[in-house]
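[Discussion] Sanity-checking designs against the backbone

I'm trying to build intuition for which residues belong where. Below is a C-alpha coordinate string of 240 positions. I'd appreciate it if someone posts a full sequence so I can compare it with mine line by line.
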Protein backbone atom coordinates (compact mmCIF):
# COMPACT_ATOMS: atom_id res chain seq x y z
CA UNK A 1 0.00 0.00 0.00
CA UNK A 2 1.10 3.57 -0.67
CA UNK A 3 2.78 5.17 2.36
CA UNK A 4 4.09 8.67 3.01
CA UNK A 5 5.65 10.99 0.43
CA UNK A 6 9.44 10.58 0.36
CA UNK A 7 10.37 13.05 -2.36
CA UNK A 8 8.79 15.21 -5.06
CA UNK A 9 10.63 15.89 -8.30
CA UNK A 10 9.65 17.83 -11.42
CA UNK A 11 7.96 14.87 -13.11
CA UNK A 12 7.28 12.32 -10.35
CA UNK A 13 6.39 11.88 -6.69
CA UNK A 14 8.11 9.10 -4.75
CA UNK A 15 6.21 7.33 -1.96
CA UNK A 16 7.16 4.74 0.64
CA UNK A 17 5.23 1.48 0.64
CA UNK A 18 3.68 0.40 3.94
CA UNK A 19 4.33 -3.33 3.46
CA UNK A 20 7.98 -3.42 2.30
CA UNK A 21 10.63 -0.84 3.18
CA UNK A 22 12.80 -1.87 0.19
CA UNK A 23 10.11 -0.84 -2.30
CA UNK A 24 8.87 2.53 -3.46
CA UNK A 25 5.96 3.78 -5.55
CA UNK A 26 6.65 6.29 -8.32
CA UNK A 27 3.64 8.45 -9.21
CA UNK A 28 4.03 10.21 -12.58
CA UNK A 29 2.78 13.81 -12.69
CA UNK A 30 1.08 15.65 -15.53
CA UNK A 31 3.62 18.50 -15.26
CA UNK A 32 6.07 19.19 -18.05
CA UNK A 33 9.19 21.28 -17.51
CA UNK A 34 12.12 22.17 -19.75
CA UNK A 35 15.34 24.15 -19.45
CA UNK A 36 15.68 23.16 -15.79
CA UNK A 37 12.15 24.21 -14.91
CA UNK A 38 12.27 27.63 -16.63
CA UNK A 39 9.50 26.53 -19.02
CA UNK A 40 6.52 24.86 -17.35
CA UNK A 41 3.08 23.55 -18.25
CA UNK A 42 0.63 20.82 -17.32
CA UNK A 43 -0.83 18.28 -19.73
CA UNK A 44 -3.69 16.09 -18.56
CA UNK A 45 -2.74 12.49 -19.33
CA UNK A 46 1.04 12.99 -19.53
CA UNK A 47 1.66 11.13 -16.24
CA UNK A 48 -0.26 8.10 -17.49
CA UNK A 49 1.60 8.08 -20.80
CA UNK A 50 5.09 8.31 -19.27
CA UNK A 51 4.23 5.68 -16.64
CA UNK A 52 2.98 3.23 -19.26
CA UNK A 53 5.78 3.97 -21.75
CA UNK A 54 8.49 3.60 -19.08
CA UNK A 55 6.89 0.36 -17.89
CA UNK A 56 6.94 -1.08 -21.42
CA UNK A 57 10.54 -0.01 -21.98
CA UNK A 58 11.78 -1.45 -18.67
CA UNK A 59 9.92 -4.72 -19.27
CA UNK A 60 11.63 -4.93 -22.65
CA UNK A 61 15.04 -4.25 -21.06
CA UNK A 62 14.41 -7.03 -18.52
CA UNK A 63 13.82 -9.41 -21.43
CA UNK A 64 17.24 -8.33 -22.72
CA UNK A 65 18.83 -9.15 -19.32
CA UNK A 66 19.35 -5.56 -18.20
CA UNK A 67 18.66 -5.25 -14.47
CA UNK A 68 16.65 -2.22 -13.35
CA UNK A 69 14.80 -0.97 -10.30
CA UNK A 70 11.43 -1.57 -12.01
CA UNK A 71 9.01 -4.17 -10.62
CA UNK A 72 5.59 -3.49 -12.16
CA UNK A 73 3.06 -0.88 -13.18
CA UNK A 74 0.41 -0.70 -10.45
CA UNK A 75 -2.14 1.38 -12.34
CA UNK A 76 -2.25 4.12 -15.00
CA UNK A 77 -0.08 6.59 -13.11
CA UNK A 78 1.97 4.56 -10.62
CA UNK A 79 4.67 1.95 -10.69
CA UNK A 80 6.35 -0.18 -8.04
CA UNK A 81 10.16 -0.13 -7.95
CA UNK A 82 12.96 -1.39 -5.75
CA UNK A 83 14.34 1.40 -3.60
CA UNK A 84 17.69 2.70 -4.80
CA UNK A 85 19.89 5.55 -3.75
CA UNK A 86 20.21 7.58 -6.93
CA UNK A 87 23.77 8.37 -8.03
CA UNK A 88 23.58 12.10 -8.90
CA UNK A 89 24.70 11.66 -12.51
CA UNK A 90 22.76 12.05 -15.74
CA UNK A 91 24.32 9.68 -18.25
CA UNK A 92 23.50 10.90 -21.76
CA UNK A 93 24.12 8.73 -24.84
CA UNK A 94 24.05 10.45 -28.23
CA UNK A 95 23.71 8.67 -31.60
CA UNK A 96 23.10 11.89 -33.53
CA UNK A 97 23.62 15.55 -32.68
CA UNK A 98 20.63 17.43 -31.25
CA UNK A 99 19.92 19.65 -28.29
CA UNK A 100 22.66 20.95 -26.00
CA UNK A 101 25.62 19.43 -27.87
CA UNK A 102 24.76 21.42 -31.01
CA UNK A 103 24.85 24.67 -29.02
CA UNK A 104 27.77 23.78 -26.75
CA UNK A 105 30.15 22.45 -29.40
CA UNK A 106 28.75 24.01 -32.60
CA UNK A 107 27.98 20.61 -34.13
CA UNK A 108 25.26 20.62 -36.78
CA UNK A 109 21.99 18.87 -35.85
CA UNK A 110 21.68 15.30 -37.30
CA UNK A 111 25.49 14.72 -37.42
CA UNK A 112 26.02 10.99 -36.66
CA UNK A 113 28.23 9.87 -33.79
CA UNK A 114 29.84 6.48 -34.43
CA UNK A 115 30.63 5.28 -31.82
CA UNK A 116 27.94 7.02 -29.76
CA UNK A 117 29.06 9.86 -27.50
CA UNK A 118 28.56 9.42 -23.75
CA UNK A 119 28.32 12.56 -21.62
CA UNK A 120 28.03 12.91 -17.84
CA UNK A 121 26.07 15.71 -16.20
CA UNK A 122 26.07 16.41 -12.46
CA UNK A 123 22.46 16.18 -11.25
CA UNK A 124 22.14 19.38 -9.26
CA UNK A 125 19.28 21.80 -10.04
CA UNK A 126 20.97 24.80 -8.35
CA UNK A 127 23.88 24.43 -10.81
CA UNK A 128 21.67 23.69 -13.86
CA UNK A 129 23.07 20.13 -14.16
CA UNK A 130 26.56 20.98 -15.51
CA UNK A 131 28.54 18.76 -17.89
CA UNK A 132 31.34 17.03 -15.96
CA UNK A 133 34.15 14.58 -16.67
CA UNK A 134 34.97 11.21 -15.06
CA UNK A 135 37.33 12.70 -12.47
CA UNK A 136 34.67 15.19 -11.39
CA UNK A 137 32.27 12.23 -11.03
CA UNK A 138 34.66 10.40 -8.66
CA UNK A 139 34.98 13.58 -6.62
CA UNK A 140 31.26 14.49 -6.58
CA UNK A 141 29.74 11.02 -6.08
CA UNK A 142 30.67 7.77 -4.36
CA UNK A 143 31.26 5.77 -7.56
CA UNK A 144 34.58 4.04 -8.23
CA UNK A 145 36.43 3.94 -11.54
CA UNK A 146 35.32 0.33 -12.02
CA UNK A 147 31.69 1.27 -11.38
CA UNK A 148 31.80 4.14 -13.85
CA UNK A 149 33.21 1.76 -16.47
CA UNK A 150 30.29 -0.59 -15.71
CA UNK A 151 27.77 2.28 -15.99
CA UNK A 152 29.16 3.30 -19.40
CA UNK A 153 29.09 -0.31 -20.65
CA UNK A 154 25.50 -0.62 -19.46
CA UNK A 155 24.58 2.68 -21.15
CA UNK A 156 26.00 1.47 -24.48
CA UNK A 157 24.28 -1.93 -24.19
CA UNK A 158 21.00 -0.20 -23.31
CA UNK A 159 21.49 2.07 -26.34
CA UNK A 160 21.63 -0.97 -28.65
CA UNK A 161 18.49 -2.48 -27.09
CA UNK A 162 16.58 0.81 -27.20
CA UNK A 163 17.62 1.50 -30.80
CA UNK A 164 16.14 -1.91 -31.77
CA UNK A 165 13.00 -1.39 -29.72
CA UNK A 166 12.26 2.07 -31.11
CA UNK A 167 13.23 1.09 -34.66
CA UNK A 168 10.53 -1.58 -34.54
CA UNK A 169 8.13 1.26 -33.64
CA UNK A 170 9.28 3.34 -36.62
CA UNK A 171 11.39 5.67 -34.49
CA UNK A 172 15.06 6.64 -34.60
CA UNK A 173 16.71 6.98 -31.18
CA UNK A 174 18.73 10.20 -31.39
CA UNK A 175 19.82 10.50 -27.74
CA UNK A 176 18.64 9.73 -24.23
CA UNK A 177 19.41 10.20 -20.55
CA UNK A 178 19.81 7.47 -17.95
CA UNK A 179 20.10 7.51 -14.18
CA UNK A 180 21.54 4.71 -12.08
CA UNK A 181 20.93 3.91 -8.43
CA UNK A 182 22.29 1.60 -5.75
CA UNK A 183 20.23 -1.17 -4.20
CA UNK A 184 20.70 -1.64 -0.42
CA UNK A 185 23.44 -4.26 -1.13
CA UNK A 186 25.40 -1.68 -3.19
CA UNK A 187 24.61 -3.17 -6.62
CA UNK A 188 24.16 -0.50 -9.31
CA UNK A 189 21.01 -0.79 -11.44
CA UNK A 190 19.26 1.36 -14.02
CA UNK A 191 16.66 3.56 -12.29
CA UNK A 192 14.36 6.53 -12.96
CA UNK A 193 12.38 6.57 -16.23
CA UNK A 194 12.82 6.09 -19.97
CA UNK A 195 10.14 8.04 -21.80
CA UNK A 196 9.75 10.73 -24.48
CA UNK A 197 10.72 13.17 -21.68
CA UNK A 198 14.17 11.57 -21.47
CA UNK A 199 14.79 10.45 -25.07
CA UNK A 200 14.88 12.15 -28.46
CA UNK A 201 12.90 10.10 -30.98
CA UNK A 202 12.50 11.04 -34.63
CA UNK A 203 9.97 9.38 -36.94
CA UNK A 204 11.97 7.22 -39.35
CA UNK A 205 9.73 8.03 -42.34
CA UNK A 206 9.12 11.74 -41.87
CA UNK A 207 11.98 12.85 -39.58
CA UNK A 208 9.39 14.48 -37.33
CA UNK A 209 10.41 15.07 -33.69
CA UNK A 210 8.31 12.82 -31.43
CA UNK A 211 9.48 13.62 -27.90
CA UNK A 212 9.63 16.45 -25.35
CA UNK A 213 11.16 18.71 -28.03
CA UNK A 214 7.57 19.29 -29.23
CA UNK A 215 7.07 21.09 -25.91
CA UNK A 216 10.58 22.60 -25.65
CA UNK A 217 10.32 24.06 -29.17
CA UNK A 218 6.51 24.56 -29.28
CA UNK A 219 6.14 22.49 -32.43
CA UNK A 220 3.21 20.19 -31.73
CA UNK A 221 0.90 18.48 -29.28
CA UNK A 222 2.76 16.73 -26.45
CA UNK A 223 -0.16 14.43 -25.59
CA UNK A 224 -0.87 13.37 -29.20
CA UNK A 225 2.85 12.69 -29.69
CA UNK A 226 3.29 10.63 -26.49
CA UNK A 227 0.04 8.76 -27.20
CA UNK A 228 1.43 7.78 -30.60
CA UNK A 229 4.66 6.49 -28.99
CA UNK A 230 2.71 4.34 -26.52
CA UNK A 231 0.46 3.01 -29.28
CA UNK A 232 3.42 2.08 -31.49
CA UNK A 233 5.23 0.39 -28.58
CA UNK A 234 2.10 -1.57 -27.67
CA UNK A 235 1.70 -2.74 -31.24
CA UNK A 236 5.33 -3.77 -31.55
CA UNK A 237 6.56 -4.87 -28.12
CA UNK A 238 3.52 -7.06 -27.49
CA UNK A 239 4.05 -8.79 -30.82
CA UNK A 240 7.54 -10.02 -29.75
P1 LIG B 1 20.36 17.76 -23.98
O1 LIG B 1 20.59 17.78 -25.45
O2 LIG B 1 19.45 18.85 -23.51
O3 LIG B 1 21.66 17.69 -23.21
O4 LIG B 1 19.58 16.40 -23.67
C1 LIG B 1 20.10 15.13 -24.01
C2 LIG B 1 19.06 14.05 -23.73
O5 LIG B 1 18.82 13.95 -22.33
C3 LIG B 1 17.70 14.31 -24.36
O6 LIG B 1 17.19 13.07 -24.83
C4 LIG B 1 16.84 14.82 -23.23
C5 LIG B 1 17.44 14.18 -22.02
N1 LIG B 1 17.40 15.05 -20.84
C6 LIG B 1 16.71 14.63 -19.70
O7 LIG B 1 16.13 13.55 -19.69
N2 LIG B 1 16.73 15.46 -18.61
C7 LIG B 1 17.36 16.64 -18.58
O8 LIG B 1 17.33 17.33 -17.56
C8 LIG B 1 18.07 17.05 -19.78
C9 LIG B 1 18.79 18.37 -19.81
C10 LIG B 1 18.06 16.23 -20.86
N1 LIG C 1 14.34 17.92 -17.43
C1 LIG C 1 14.78 19.28 -17.40
C2 LIG C 1 13.66 20.17 -16.84
O1 LIG C 1 12.74 19.66 -16.32
C3 LIG C 1 15.33 19.76 -18.70
C4 LIG C 1 14.77 19.27 -20.01
O2 LIG C 1 14.31 18.14 -20.12
O3 LIG C 1 14.83 20.02 -21.01
O4 LIG C 1 13.67 21.36 -16.85
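Best answer:
Here's mine. Compare freely.
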Amino acid sequence: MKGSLLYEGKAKRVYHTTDNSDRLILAYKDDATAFNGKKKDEFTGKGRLNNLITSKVFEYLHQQNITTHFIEALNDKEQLVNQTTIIPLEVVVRNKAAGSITRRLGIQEKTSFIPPIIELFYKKDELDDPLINDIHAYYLTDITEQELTFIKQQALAINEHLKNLFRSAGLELIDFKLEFGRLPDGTIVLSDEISPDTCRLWDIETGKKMDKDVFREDIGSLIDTYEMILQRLEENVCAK
